[in-house]
Design goal:
Elements lengths: L11 H7 L27 H8 L3 H26 L6 H27 L8 H14 L9 H25 L2 H31 L7 H8 L6 H5 L18 H6 L2 H13 L5 H7 L4
Subcellular location: Membrane
GO molecular function: oxidoreductase activity
Organism: Arctia plantaginis
Length: about 280
C-alpha cells in the first residue's frame, strides 16, 4: 500500500505509549500513564472540557456564513470554468501543484496554531486557536463535530481567492481566460483542497463507519491516511503537520523544516514552542 512506502519518524512503541488509542468506537480508551492513572486525554480531561465550553454562538454563526458563501462561490466558479477546460499535461501539472500547495499551507497553519499563541489572545485565541488546543487533548472530539463546526474556518480561508476567480471568469475576455486558465485551475484546486482539509482531517480520526471510497483514498494516500496522521499525535505533537494529503510530511521532517523554524523563532523572541498547548494538557480536575 502507498501508506507504507516511507518509514514513519516515530516508532510503534512511541505511537502506542504517547498517543491516544483511537481504533475503537471513539470510546477514548488510553494506555495507563507511567506516572499514574490520571487522564492524559479524552473528553473527560479538564482542559478538553473547558476548551469545548468556549465554542460560542457567534463563532457558530460565522462558520455558517462562511460555509454558505464558500459553497456558492465554489459551485459558481466550477460552472464558469467548465467551458474553458482543455485536458492536457499542463492542466494536470497545475492541478497537482494546487494540491501540493494546499498540503503545504495546511502544514504552515497547523504548525503555527499548534506551536505559538494562546487561547486568551484577543479575537484569534478563542475563535481560532481553541480548536487546536482541544484537539490535542481530545483528538476524537473532531469526530463529534458536525459539518459546519468541522469545516467553517477552512471554508472561510478560501473565500477571497474563490471570489477573485469568479470575478475573473465573469469579467475577463474569453481569450485572456484561456491564456490564464491553468493558473485559474491551480488556484481553484488549491481552494478545493484547502476547504476540504479539515474534513479529510476528521476522516483520519474516524476509525469506524467511513465510506469505502474514503478508506480507499486513505489507503492509497490520496488523502491523509489514519495511520500516517497518528504520528502527529504522539506527544508533544512536534512533527507531521501537513493534514491535507500528508505528502509533504516526510520530506519536511527529513529537512528539519519545522524544528529549524522553531529554533530561529525561539532565539529571536524567547517564546517556547507549544507552551500554551502544554498548559492545557497539564490541567487536572
Amino acid at each position: 500500500m502507498a501508506t507504507t512506502l516511507l518509514a514513519p519518524v516515530k516508532t510503534e512503541r512511541q505511537i502506542f505509549e504517547h498517543s491516544m488509542s483511537e481504533d475503537d468506537p471513539n470510546a477514548n480508551t488510553q494506555v495507563p500513564s507511567v506516572v499514574g492513572t490520571e487522564l492524559r486525554w479524552g473528553p473527560r480531561h479538564k482542559g478538553a472540557q473547558e476548551l469545548a465550553e468556549l465554542y460560542s454562538p457567534g463563532k457558530r454563526l460565522q462558520e455558517w456564513v462562511c460555509v454558505v458563501v464558500c459553497c456558492t462561490l465554489c459551485v459558481s466558479a466550477g460552472l464558469l470554468m467548465a467551458r474553458h477546460i482543455q485536458a492536457d499535461a499542463s492542466l494536470l501539472l497545475a492541478a497537482m501543484a494546487g494540491v501540493l500547495t494546499a498540503d503545504f499551507a495546511s502544514g504552515v497553519v497547523h504548525w503555527a496554531a499548534d506551536t505559538w499563541g494562546a487561547v486568551d489572545l484577543p479575537l484569534i485565541g478563542k475563535n481560532f486557536l481553541r480548536p487546536f488546543r482541544e484537539h490535542h487533548i481530545d483528538p476524537t472530539s473532531i469526530t463529534r463535530h458536525d459539518f459546519i463546526e468541522t469545516n467553517g474556518d477552512n471554508f472561510a480561508i478560501t473565500i477571497p481567492v474563490l471570489a477573485r476567480i469568479v470575478w475573473q471568469l465573469l469579467t475577463y475576455d474569453d481569450r485572456i481566460i484561456d491564456q490564464q486558465f491553468n493558473w485559474i485551475a491551480y488556484w481553484y484546486l488549491c481552494c478545493i483542497f484547502v476547504a476540504m482539509t479539515n474534513q479529510i482531517h476528521k476522516w483520519s480520526h474516524t476509525y469506524f463507519g467511513l465510506p469505502t471510497w474514503v478508506v480507499w483514498l486513505q489507503e492509497w494516500h490520496i488523502v491523509l491516511p489514519r495511520r500516517h496522521h497518528r504520528i502527529h499525535h504522539v506527544a508533544p505533537h512536534e512533527t507531521y503537520f501537513c493534514i491535507t494529503t500528508g505528502w509533504l510530511n516526510w520530506p519536511l521532517e527529513k529537512l528539519h523544516f519545522w524544528s529549524t523554524l522553531e529554533t530561529i523563532i525561539e532565539a529571536l523572541t524567547g517564546c517556547k514552542p507549544r507552551a500554551d498547548d502544554l498548559k492545557w494538557a497539564h490541567k487536572r480536575s
